[in-house]
């Protein structure tokens, strides 16, 4: 793709559209519910009277005891919302807040009977939150209290509440609202904004507070949980797509961090400080996941930077978990600001990577992610130095923008996933076409190989027929010729007819075994050798050669047990012995021949032909390659998988074949008999 594929104006336009969409949605989230908060924070009209706050004071509690009376001294004027660490940075425990107020009613109109004037409308009290937990009193009577005012504390710091003040608890003139707040100095303890007014007005304002302090965070957490589970499942199915895995981890870490805004108790942690440590570690995990997700999405290879980020995250987590309680405020602030700084650097460097790439064209997906990170970078800059001001939570753009950012990232990654799915479908279509083409070519190749295999089979059958004719019928002819040559007188017609019948029997045997590969195995070795023994012995006797047959009486087992040859092995070994005896008749000039059929071991079969003839030079014959009989015997032994040897000297010749039973030819291999 050339650099002109994504020109700069088009990229700027896309980024501007995305940024405008973000701003519009943020305005809806911020301004919509906030429209309810139009009245002043401390004074709201209540019919013909108004509740006017006279002054707000705070004093440190001497002990963790929410029961009145409050301290009699040490009161200092404060402005709500208030963080007492700005005034007493080393104070842990509890603080009393005293809010003095009175009704300021308009004068009755002239001529109006004051006795018939309607009673004043009810007064409502609204508080944005108490950090970390607390109780509320009207004059000297308890109005409301958290479930637990000792560790583990209940969590009210981000929970807006409002109450209708009972008229029975109010008195003419000045009334006092007492608020008891308890918390750790590392957790920005204090009191949120407070308002007095008519129930309708207070309820309307508190509804907006509920939206921005609770609902937005809840929606954010649910969206993060859904994104985390969805993209973690996608990553499990596609382990190489690590971008999805890091995004899932990023969403889950942000959800864990948001739990500190939503939790109503410290469970499962033993106290509020431990929960704060956990939340800050979750924030470190979120920032680390954001950075590595950015690297993976932008195809940035920064191994040393990633190692450095892992080291920073480990150091930050160690500081968060190990910093003493008395220094937790400073330690938490340092870690938080460091994490924010890393987030800022990551967002800024990706702007350079996306807008000014090196050696590659601009990528629209990278530009869109850069716009999202630009928004979060602005949010982080806005909140970098107000981290400890917990009462700005309701106006915290990080929470509001988090909903949009997670949603937009899901859309961005979802679009990328859809594009990958389209590419997979296109690849599958191309693969299907390629497979069909390959299948057609393979079918044609198989057809050609089938034709070639048929030709080879015909050639092998012809060669096998030649070998069998040579070994069977050729042997019979040689024996007959030898008998005729060595006869002292003319052979009678009956004798010639007998020789011809013998050759006919050999031809029938060749046809029968060649057409029936599954012929039965003789019951004993004696029955196996009997036909050959009958024919050969008669011929050898007629030419004056003494024969001795050494044949095992029984097989040592069955074919299935590997202790008996199959029918094809019997046939091939018979051909081998027959060829060896034919060579004895033609060439040896022997006077004695010994034939042996034995089983030295249950799974081994030995056949041997030994004569006392003149012998020959085995190596010379093999080099000359002119002995058809020698080659035929060697080929048959090789096809059997048997060892074959020929030993010859002037004192005689010995031909030996040793077959390992159970490892030879199958019992019914087509054409095996012919080969």
Protein described:
The chain has 675 residues and is an alpha+beta fold. It contains 13 helices and 18 strands. The protein starts with 7 loop residues before the first helix and ends in a 15-residue tail after the last strand. Mean pLDDT is 81; it is low at 1-9, 34-47, 111-116, 387-391 and 666-675.
Estimate percent helicity.
40-55%
Q: How far apart are the termini?
A: 64 Å
Largest sheet: 7 strands, antiparallel
Query: Averaged pLDDT, please?
Result: 81
Beta-strand fraction estimate: 15-25%
Structure class: alpha+beta
Number of helices: 13
Précis, in short:
This protein is of the alpha+beta class and about 675 residues long. The protein is about 50% helix and about 15% strand.
Keywords:
675 residues; alpha+beta; seven-stranded antiparallel beta sheet; five-stranded mixed beta sheet; 13 helices; disordered N terminus
Write the layout of secondary structure elements.
Layout: H1 8-34, E1 45-46, E2 49-60, E3 76-77, E4 82-83, E5 93-105, E6 123-127, E7 130-131, E8 133-138, E9 141-145, E10 161-165, E11 174-183, E12 190-191, E13 194-197, H2 199-237, H3 242-262, H4 272-297, H5 303-322, H6 328-355, H7 364-383, H8 397-486, H9 493-515, H10 525-542, E14 546-551, H11 567-588, E15 592-598, E16 604-611, H12 618-624, H13 628-640, E17 643-649, E18 652-660
Parallel strand pairs: 14-15
Antiparallel strand pairs: 1-2, 2-3, 2-5, 4-12, 5-11, 6-10, 6-13, 7-12, 8-9, 8-11, 15-16, 16-18, 17-18
Helix pairs in contact: 1-2, 1-7, 1-8, 2-3, 2-8, 3-4, 4-5, 4-6, 5-6, 6-7, 7-8, 8-9, 8-11, 10-11, 11-13
């Amino acid at each position: 793709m050339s650099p002109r594929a994504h020109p700069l104006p088009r990229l700027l336009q896309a980024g501007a559209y995305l940024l405008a969409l973000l701003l519009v949605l943020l305005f809806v989230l911020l301004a919509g519910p906030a429209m309810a908060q139009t009245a002043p924070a401390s004074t709201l009209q209540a019919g013909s009277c108004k509740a006017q706050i006279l002054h707000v004071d705070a004093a440190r509690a001497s002990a963790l005891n929410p029961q009145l009376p409050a301290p009699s001294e040490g009161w200092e004027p404060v402005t709500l919302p208030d963080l007492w660490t700005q005034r007493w940075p080393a104070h842990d425990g509890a603080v009393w807040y005293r809010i003095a107020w009175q009704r300021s009613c308009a004068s009755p109109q002239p001529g109006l009977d004051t006795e018939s004037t309607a009673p004043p409308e009810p007064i409502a009290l609204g508080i944005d939150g108490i950090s970390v937990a607390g109780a509320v009193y009207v004059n000297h009577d308890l109005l409301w209290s958290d479930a637990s005012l000792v560790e583990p504390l209940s969590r009210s710091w981000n929970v807006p509440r409002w109450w209708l003040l009972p008229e029975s608890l109010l008195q003419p003139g000045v009334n006092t609202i007492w608020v008891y707040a308890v918390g750790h100095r590392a957790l920005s303890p204090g009191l949120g904004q407070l308002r007095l007014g008519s129930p309708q007005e207070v309820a309307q304002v508190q509804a907006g507070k509920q939206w921005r302090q609770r609902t937005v965070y809840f929606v954010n957490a649910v969206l993060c949980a859904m994104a985390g589970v969805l993209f973690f499942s996608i990553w499990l199915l596609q382990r190489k797509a690590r971008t999805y895995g890091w995004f899932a981890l990023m969403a889950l870490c942000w959800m864990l961090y948001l739990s500190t805004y939503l939790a109503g108790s410290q469970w499962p942690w033993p106290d509020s400080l431990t929960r704060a440590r956990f939340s800050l570690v979750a924030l470190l995990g979120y920032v680390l996941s954001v950075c590595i997700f950015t690297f993976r999405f932008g195809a940035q290879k920064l191994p040393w930077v990633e190692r450095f980020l892992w080291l920073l995250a480990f150091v930050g987590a160690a500081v968060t978990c190990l910093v003493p309680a008395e220094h937790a405020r400073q330690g938490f602030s340092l870690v938080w600001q460091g994490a924010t700084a890393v987030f800022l650097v990551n967002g800024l460097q990706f702007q350079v990577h996306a807008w000014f790439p090196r050696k590659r064209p601009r990528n629209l997906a990278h530009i869109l992610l850069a716009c999202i990170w630009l928004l979060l970078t602005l949010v982080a800059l806005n909140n970098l130095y107000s981290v400890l001001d917990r009462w700005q939570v309701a106006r915290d753009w990080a929470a509001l923008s988090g909903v949009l950012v997670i949603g937009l990232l899901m859309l961005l990654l979802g679009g990328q996933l859809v594009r990958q799915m389209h590419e997979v479908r296109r690849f599958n279509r191309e693969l299907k076409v390629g497979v069909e083409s390959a299948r057609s070519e393979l079918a044609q190749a198989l057809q050609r190989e089938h034709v070639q295999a048929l030709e080879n089979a015909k050639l092998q059958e012809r060669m096998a027929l030649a070998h069998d004719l040579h070994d069977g019928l050729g042997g019979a002819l040689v024996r007959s010729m030898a008998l005729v040559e060595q006869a002292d007188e003319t052979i009678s017609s009956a004798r010639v007819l007998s020789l011809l019948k013998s050759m006919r029997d050999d031809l029938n045997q060749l046809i029968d075994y060649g057409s029936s590969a599954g012929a039965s195995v003789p019951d004993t070795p004696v029955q196996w050798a009997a036909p050959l023994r009958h024919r050969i012995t008669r011929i050898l006797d007629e030419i004056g050669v003494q024969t001795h047959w050494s044949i095992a009486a029984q097989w040592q087992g069955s074919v299935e047990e590997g202790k008996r040859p199959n029918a094809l092995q019997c046939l091939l070994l018979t051909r081998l012995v027959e060829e060896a005896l034919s060579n004895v008749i033609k060439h040896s000039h022997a006077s004695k021949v010994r034939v042996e059929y034995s089983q030295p071991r249950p799974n081994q079969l030995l056949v041997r032909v030994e004569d006392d003839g003149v012998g020959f030079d085995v190596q010379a014959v093999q080099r000359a390659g002119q002995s058809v009989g020698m080659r035929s015997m060697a080929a048959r032994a090789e096809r059997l998988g048997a060892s074959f040897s020929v030993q010859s000297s002037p004192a005689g010749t010995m031909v030996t074949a040793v077959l390992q039973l159970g490892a030879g030819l199958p019992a019914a291999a087509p054409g095996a008999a012919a080969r």
